[in-house]
Amino acid sequence: MRERRRLGTQIVALALALAGCAAIDPPVEGSALPAPPNGPDPATLRYSCVGPPGFLPALVDQPGMAEREDHPSAEALRVFLAEDSMGLGFLPDAGYWLVGRDAREAQYIARLPADRESPFGYVTMQATGVDWSIAGGGDCRPAVMLEGQSPATWTLPPNRPPPDRSTVAFTALVTEMGCTGGEPVGQRLLPPSITYADEAVLIVFAARPHQGITTCPGTPPTEVTVELREPLGERTLLDAGVFPPAEPTAPEF
Questions:
Q1: Where are the domains of the chain?
Q2: I want to staple 243 with a disulfide (CB 3.0 to 4.6 A). Which of 39, 142, 147, 188 is the partner?
């Protein structure tokens, strides 16, 4: 119960930080987006492959050994990994972290090899009475969890000079992660949360949820200008909407 209260507090705090400037008019394509003075501590952000409860970054600082637990869900996980009944042979045989578990479901994640496009694999185990069995699995790029908001990822445009140490504003191409029926995020985009750390400037974008049919044919990016409160200096720009936070490499067209 205490963990649930802490989770609720952290998600609400992040949502407030992201919505702190949401009272301004919705952004127009290419317009500048002001941001709160400083965003949340990156260590308090929760990320997920398949929904709540999500995990804190510190989870993966320790060795992943959850598949060794003396628990029915871990035993079922070992059996699934040995049999590979779903054709997910890219999942490792060991090195799993337990993201969350209740009486009905257990979520696990593990790192994938560096040559994989996605950094993590996930497995969801489900209980039916006293028996546990596989409910789903795959590869994933964990996304930040935002209460009542849709997370987005961003990159730098390939046709413009990259930011340098004097940069106080730059252009970002923002793409909503969820299904939107092929519509860009547009005016649903909220001002970014920007955290100024010693070695990096971490930026999280989010949007008001899309309404209507949500098919997934691909989502075009929305171009916006991000204004920093201070020059970038020697710090690295990172997209903290995903885990681990990633350099916003310009897409290849």
A1: 24-41+146-239, 57-141
A2: 142
